[in-house]
Amino acid sequence: MSTQQLFEKPMRLEAAAELLGVSVKTITREKDMGKFCAFQIRGRWFTRMSDIQAYIDQQIQKAKGRQSCLGIS
Length: 73
Description:
With 73 residues, the protein is α+β, with helices and mostly antiparallel strands. 58% of the residues lie in helices and 12% in strands. It has four helices and three strands; from the N terminus they run αβααββα. Strand 2 (39-41) and strand 3 (44-47) form a beta hairpin. The longest helix is centred in the C-terminal third of the chain and has 21 residues, at 49-69. The model has no long low-confidence stretch (mean pLDDT 87).
């Protein structure tokens, strides 16, 4: 973990969901399935911008894999 990641301001899952344009339920489901990194502080769930970027990158790679299976480049 980089020093920059250690000092990133935590973001509530509601804000992350809004940023991604999905529901909090979707983010929570992805978190529960281990696809979205989040952590708890005093009973509230948070994530970091770097975790959101990692999730986006993961989704892009997943989409690229589907496209190549369909013969789309």
